[in-house]
Each structure stands twice: as C-alpha cells, then as structure tokens.
Amino acid sequence: DRPSSSLLESMMTFACGNEMMMEGLFRRSSYFVDSNVVFVSTHPGLLKTDLHCGQGFWFDILETVAVAVLGRTEEDSGHHQASVLVSDKLRPGLNFVDSLGYGRLRDPNMSDLIESNLDWLWNLLQSLEAMYVQHELPRKEPH
C-alpha cells in the first residue's frame, strides 16, 4: 500500500487523464478519423478561488501568495480560453496550449504513459457510453 496521493499528484493525474481522453477521442473515435477537426487542450491558469483551501497550513499560505501574484479571475480565464480557440495558429489535430497562451509539446514520457494506458481508458469510456445509452429514456414526441 502507498500513502494517499498529494494534492499536486492528484492534479497531475487529472491532467494526464484529460490528455489521454483527448488522444483517445482523436485517434479512435470514428467521428474524427480523417477529419480536419481541431482539438485543443488548454490550461485556465491559476484562478482566484478558494478551491484548494484547507489542504494544509503551508499549502494554504503558498496558494494565498500565488493567487495574489499570479491569479486571474474566471472572466479573465474565459477570455484567455476564447482567444486560444479563435487563434489562427491552431492546426487540425491535437494542439496543446499552456496557461500563458503558448503552444507546448507533449513530454515524451507522457506519450509513453498514454500508449500504455489508452486501451484501458478507451474501453472504460466505451463501457460508460454503452451504460448511458442503454439507460437513456425514450424521448416523447411533441403533440
């Protein structure tokens, strides 16, 4: 047994999962094969919220300082996200953009991690989709 994940480890795991889902959708979904669809993974930046409050004394101090110096409002983050989405620098395929709006390359270790886990994640997503579709209620036709 290993100790529970730290907040930073949990946040990084969440980010890895997001990139794996994007990669899976892009490479394996019949909707996007041979298409000119643009996939963009962006980072909202450090938001001025108390989302991580109560994670420990030192983390609370660090977050307070970081948010005061680098934090942006939800509106600023939304504006940033929208400006990325309308950028003429995006190309069909997978695009990765950091919190400052700069394109980024994927770490080679991340590519290896995705390759070793993509089958598992894709099977999970398909089984969840099948469960949802199976339990979807029939829609009533308007009178």
Alpha-beta content class: mainly alpha
What is the β-strand count?
2
End-to-end separation: 59 Å
- Name the poorly predicted regions: none
Secondary-structure element string: HEHHEH
Over the alpha carbons, how many angstroms does the gyration radius reach? Answer: 19 Å
- The strands making up the biggest β-sheet line up spatially as 1-2
Mean pLDDT: 78
How can the largest sheet be summarized? 2 strands, parallel
Fold and architecture overview:
Helix content is 53%, strand content 6%. The protein contains four helices and two strands; from the N terminus they run αβααβα. The N and C termini lie far apart (59 Å). It is globular. The longest helix is centred in the C-terminal third of the chain and has 28 residues, at 108-135. The protein is mainly alpha-helical.
Compose a concise summary of this entry.
The protein has 143 residues and is mostly helical. The chain is 53% helix and 6% strand.
Outline the secondary-structure elements:
Blueprint: H1 7-28, E1 38-41, H2 57-70, H3 74-85, E2 93-96, H4 108-135
Parallel strand pairs: 1-2
